[in-house]
Amino acid sequence: MDMFSELTDALIITIISFLPFEEAARTSVLSRRWRGLWRSTANIEFDERFFVRDNVPVETQRVQRLEFINFIRCWPHEDTAELVLRRFRLRMSKPREFESDVQMCISFAISRDVGVLELDFSDPTWDENDMENHEPEFHLPMQIGMPPLESLTLFACSFNPALLRNLRSLKHVSFGWITVRMSTLNDLLRNSTCLESLRLKKCWNLEHLSIFERDLTLKTLVIDNCNFHRECFAVEAPNLRSFKYSGSVGNFELLFTRHLEEAELDFGSESELLFTRHLEEAELDFGSESEFDESGGELLQTLLSSLDCARILKVCSYMLQVVPTGEEPLRMQSPLNVRHLILNTALHRDEYWGIAFFLKSCPFLETLTLQMSPPRIFPDYQPPFQFDPSRFWSGNIERLYRCVLRTLKVVE
User: Fold this and answer.
1) Which InterPro entries match (predicted)?
2) In a designed cystine with 161, which of 38, 184, 257, 354 is the match (CB 3.0 to 4.6 A)?
């Protein structure tokens, strides 16, 4: 502690502000001087899960939740009057029971010119794979004047779209467990000219996804289990580096430029995607589909052709089972540029042809990662050729899979 004794309180608070909130709280035991310094941190995270346990009776949870609220109520004090917040996060699952306290927290954060505001009122018991749409737990008041936020996260927290019109400095936006309309997203993209990432999780009432802005600065787009009236997705984003999609299969037209470095594909059914070449990361998960459809093989191979510049590629069990049913059952017609191949697999016999397909299609492969996952095998699966599973991997591996001899360095 001697090295810190020469530092001013202001400098120590700056150091504490770079710590996670829990770690900042632990500094209070270091000495009497440090006991209250952490409460001036510029990074505040009020998370109900620090207090409320999942594996206890409901009555016990109520007591624990009240302890959490009492902790929040004691927070504002005279030492925080001049505090400028870098980040404020409030995460609780029953905000309606403590609406005035929630309002107090939001007002506290806004009055401190917070740069990153995260309000998460989703319930940890909600199943994101469930089709049920939960009513928002809290509505963000329109009369609240927002500071020039850089990042905004609203989960199970509805809002008036007009609230976003003045937030022109936003770089990162995440909406979850609420209704969102395409018109709202278009207004957001049009007004927030600095926006770099947009994440939608379990949102609904979206008519479709249609993003066309020539000067769009968007670099990351995540669509996670959202409900669309029509599974129709059209995105033209010249600066997009990362695209992640999880949900039902649909018609995709994604136009980027040519810089793809990482792609993650997790399919439950076919899709049609058109990529040009600027993307660094793509993650596609159609796991909600549950039927084997060999007609999808050609579409998947077309998709892989459009991702041929990806250096990192992640695919799922569905892809491994379906892709060999396309016109080219053994390998891609043109080789992929993949350096790191990640397979979500159970190493089931029905996945063998797909694994071989990718090893043959990636002649420059340097790292192969096998992420063992529960089997997702389709009872109506038909292999492209008859084979003996016990002898499938026998033979001259180096001759069959060029990457094994020439470039492969790591198997994990």
Assistant:
1) At1g61320/At1g61330-like, F-box-like_dom_sf, F-box_AtFBL13-like, F-box_dom, LRR_At1g61320_AtMIF1, LRR_dom_sf
2) 184
Two structure tokens written together for 82: 């001049």
Quickly list H helices, 89-207.
99-111, 182-191
Q: For residue 405, what are the CA distances in angstroms to 106, 353, 363, 408?
A: 59, 20, 10, 7
Q: How far apart are CA 38 and CA 50, in angstroms?
A: 17
Each domain of the chain, given as residue ranges in start order, spans: 60-76+85-232, 241-412
Provide the pLDDT for residue 270: 36
| DSSP assignments along 97-111, one per residue | GGHHHHHHHHHHHHH
Question: Which pLDDT does position 267 carry in this prediction?
Answer: 47
Helix (H) or strand (E) holding 59: helix 58-73
Residue 249: closest CA among 185, 281, 295: 295
Which residues touch 79 (CB under 8 Å, ≥6 apart)?
A: 36, 39, 40
Q: Which of 75, 101, 78 is nearest to 21 (CA)?
A: 75
Taking the model in full, what pTM does it have? 0.80
- From the CB of residue 390, how many other CB atoms can be counted at a distance below 10 Å? 8
Name residue 234's amino acid: A
Residue 77 has pLDDT above 80, yes or no: no
Maximum separation of any 2 CA atoms in the chain, in Å? 76
Closest CA to 238 of 225, 223, 257, 263: 257
Kindly write down the DSSP assignment for every residue of 372-392, as one continuous string.
Answer: E------TT---SS---GGGT
Under DSSP, is residue 250 helix (H, G, I), strand (E, B) or coil?
Answer: coil
Residues above pLDDT 90, as percent of the chain: 32
pLDDT of residue 398: 59
What's the pLDDT band for 269 if we cut at 50, 70, 90?
Answer: very low
Closest listed residue to residue 194, CA positions, set 235, 149, 144: 149
- Kindly state the DSSP code that residue 411 receives in the 8-state scheme: E
